[in-house]
Every structure is written in structure tokens, then in C-alpha cells.
Amino acid sequence: MSATARRIRVLAVARRHAYVLQRAPQRWFDVVFWPVVDALLFGSLGVYFSRQSSIGRAGVGLLLAGILLFHVVFQAEISLATGFMEETWSRNLLNLLVTPLTEVEYVAGVVLFGLAKLAIGVGTVALAAWALFSFNVTDLGFALVPLVAILLVVGWSVGLVVIALILRVGQGAEILAWGLLAMVMPLSGIFYPVNALPSGLQPVARALPTTHVFAAARRVLQGHPLPWGQVGVAALGAAVLLAASCLFLVRMLALFRARGYISRHT
Amino acid sequence: MRPDGVVLRAQGLTKQYRRVLAVDGVDITVGTGERVALLGPNGAGKTTTLLMLLGVVTPDHGWVEIAGHRLPRERSAAAANVGFAAGYLPLPERLRVSEFLRMFGHLYGLVDPEPQIRLGLERFRITELADAMGNELSSGQRTLVGIIKATLHRPRLLILDEPTASLDPDVALRVRTGLADLCAADGTALLVTSHDMVEVERLCQRVVFISSGRVVADGAPAAVAASFGRDDLEGVFLHLASQPREK
């Protein structure tokens, strides 16, 4: 297979999902509507608490930075998971499985288009936070680059797990596209340090790479330098998570082929 | 006479789903440019066999080789030589016919699929549907678009699962004519499942009958009918359908 053919296939998958977004208004909920709602909700919450306590204006920034960075994970995960779900909803899976398209090329195509969605979604949160609460995300400076990169990897990893579970148990697993991140959100301490969690959950939270990313972001917002040690732990965790997700997906795809689960999608 | 060269070779294909032995040691060979029908009653194992040949279902035993590429290791290279369409597959709702065909042309590695798209739409006489949305098509039109999709890359083997199921005679004729034209023009081999025995006799040079997951006959239509003491394939089909299914 030539590199040109591979590139063409990846772009074809990305273009297919661009058409879907263009023609399915409900998909804009994830990309624009929820980001604005989240910015409004958490920004207002921050303003209210800052007026009630001594944390002052910094509290607004912490909440908005938390939700903005959470949207990086969310948009990365949801674009990959719903991209795959679109194939099951339109019963297009068998059509794809009989082409030369490889699993890696398919994921690359969905991820490529997902990056465009991510830019729109996170851009919307950032714009809303700036317009409504004068919060400028670029205050995080260069620290944004490694933190966003790690969160992207985590989002894609969770997306791969969701795809693997849909392959294994069918469309009933689709709820996990939203449900898994709903579990990750509180455990990652996106708005608060880990020691605010119930003690039994703190070890679980510390095992999540996202926890270290949000903690690092808070440090930077409080005027400290980027804690590279914590960023390294998060990067390592994200790499392990990605490898585990890939292995899980490969295993579930093999099971999908062995048990003939394609019959659920035709 | 079987043409020289083999495009598909499968041996000993076996598949068990929980308590059902769906396919039990099926051997199939399709020569270059040959038109073969895979026949049998509902539940005989035809679709499972096709899915194993396409690499979508992994056989418990046996192996498949397409254009010299062994599955599953060389699935992608093998798939570049195969086209597949099924009468029961819909078109994605949010794509126009031309976009759908362009996407699959690219997935099959064509840098510029437009000439092949035009040729396919003309061959099956549906040029007016190029801008229609997938969900606006009738089942017959969907089938035609599906076959065009499967032949954009001029595959060496075209596999069709029930291509003319629930089609009116006019569209079914268009499918048959288009397929015969395609096979003659490109030397494409055909492996097709169908419940329409008249259509099979018109289109195919060889038939493979499956019953209870096993091949029970393989040969020219007239020879197979004669071997069962029947006048035609319809008689063979009805005879096999009346047999109790083995567990």
C-alpha cells in the first residue's frame, strides 16, 4: 500500500465526517452549545463564590481554566467516539470493513477531523470565557502546549475504549461516550485539589493523568512555574493509557471478527 | 470451461456460533473472470461464508486467499482486489450519492475517482442521482449505487450478497446487464448469492450449493440440476430447502 493511498484514505474519512457535521445540526450541541453553557455556568459560579469569600477574582480563573481544559479531553474523546458511532447509526460499518482501509487509517481520519472540532469547541469556550468574564486562557502561556497535548492523548484513549466497548457489547455501550468522562471529571479534580475528594477516592484520582494536568494548570495560574515533574507523571500516565486502550481495541476487534458481531450492524 | 488463474481460493472454512455450526468445511475457488453463484436456503451459511471470504468474520478453521493475499494478515491488500455490495445495506443518510462514491473511491486508493464514478452511473443508467441524498433513494436505486461503489476500483473479484432482492424486474434487469457488461469489460470475477434461480441461470457459469453449512454441489447449472434429478436450479433449491437442517 502506497503512502499516497494511505493519505487519501485518511482524508476521505475526515471529509466524510465533515459532511456529517455540516448536515446534522444536533452535532453542533457538543461543539458549540455545551461549551458556551459550561463557560457561563462555571464562570458565574466563580463570580458568585468570589464575592462570598476571600478567594477573590482568581477563583473565576481557576474554574474557567478547569472547564476549558476539560473540554480538550471531552472534544477529543467525543469526536472519536461519535465518529465511530456515526458508522453504526448509518449501518456503514460493513461497507468500511470490506475496503482496504486499516484500523489505524480510520482512527487517524476521525482524529484529524476531531482536531477541527476540538479547535471550534475549545475556541468557543475560550471566546465565551473572555467575552463574558474577561478570562484570557493565554494567561497560561507556554504551559498550555504540553498540558493540552496530554489531555488530547487522554481524550483519544477514552474514545478508543468506547469504540472497543461498542464493538464488544453493541450500541448499548454508546452511553459510555458521555458517561466515562462524567466519571473522570470529578475524579480528576478539575476545579479542586485531590485532597478535597473523599479519602477513599484520592488514590484513584492520583492514578489519573488528567489529575496531574489540572493540578499543574492551577499552579501556573497561581503564578508558579510549570511543575515539570507533575507534567512528566501525567505524560507517562497518558502514554500508558493510550497503549492500554490500543491493546484493548485490538482485542475487542479480534473478538468482534471471531464472534461475527457485524450482524448487529447490518 | 473455467478461465485460467484463480482470484479466490478458500479451503476448509468452518464457523460455529454458540450452538450453531453455521459453516462446516466449505471449499470455494473462483477463477479469473468467472461468474459463480453461492446458493442455498435461508440459514444455509451463505452470508457467513461471504463474510469470512471478505475478512469481516474470522473462520474457526480454514483459510482464505484473494489475488494471492492471505487473510487476515494481508487483508488490506486483498480488499483492494475485491468489491462488495449487499442489497440490505443502506447508504449513509448525510451523504449525496456523488460524495458517497467519491469517499469509497478514495478508500479504495483512487486518486481521482471521478471518471470511474461517471462510468458507473452511466453503466447502470442513474446519472440523474449523482446529487441525490442517500436517504432519498429507493431500494433499487440504493442497490445500483452500492454496486457502483463496489466496482469503482475495477476489482478482480466482485462479491454481491442478494443484489436483486426485492427489486422490480426492470431494475433487476439493469443490474444483470450492468454486471455482465462489467465482467466482460474488466474481466471481473463474480461471486453472488441469490434466491432467484432464473436470474442465477442467466448470469452465472457455475453454481455452488450450500446446505447446513456444507457444499453439496458445485458445477455448471444444468449439470448440478441433473445431478439432483431436477429440471432446473429451482428444483434443486426446493429439494434442499425441504431437507431438515442438521445440527
Instruction: Tell me the major beta sheet of chain B.
Output: 6 strands, mixed
Strands ordered across the widest β-sheet of chain B? 6-7-8-3-9-10
Q: Which structural class matches the secondary elements of chain B? A: alpha/beta
Portion in strands of chain A: under 5%
Contiguous helical run count of chain B: 9
Would you count the extended β strands of chain A for me?
Answer: 0
**Average pLDDT value of chain A?**
91
How many distinct helices of chain A? 10
Indicate how many domains the architecture of chain B comprises.
1
Main CATH class of chain B: Alpha Beta
Shape of chain A: globular
Secondary-structure element order of chain A, N to C: HHHHHHHHHH
**Helical content band of chain B:** 25-40%
CATH superfamily of chain B: P-loop containing nucleotide triphosphate hydrolases
Span between termini of chain A: 28 Å
How does the SSE layout of this entry go?
The complex is a heterodimer of chains A (266) and B (247).
Chain A: H1 3-23, H2 28-52, H3 58-89, H4 93-97, H5 103-133, H6 144-169, H7 176-187, H8 202-207, H9 209-221, H10 228-258
Chain B: E1 6-17, E2 20-31, E3 35-39, H1 46-53, E4 61-66, E5 69-70, H2 75-79, E6 82-86, H3 97-107, H4 114-123, H5 139-151, E7 157-161, H6 169-186, E8 189-193, H7 197-203, E9 206-211, E10 214-219, H8 221-227, H9 233-241
Helix pairs in contact in B: 3-5
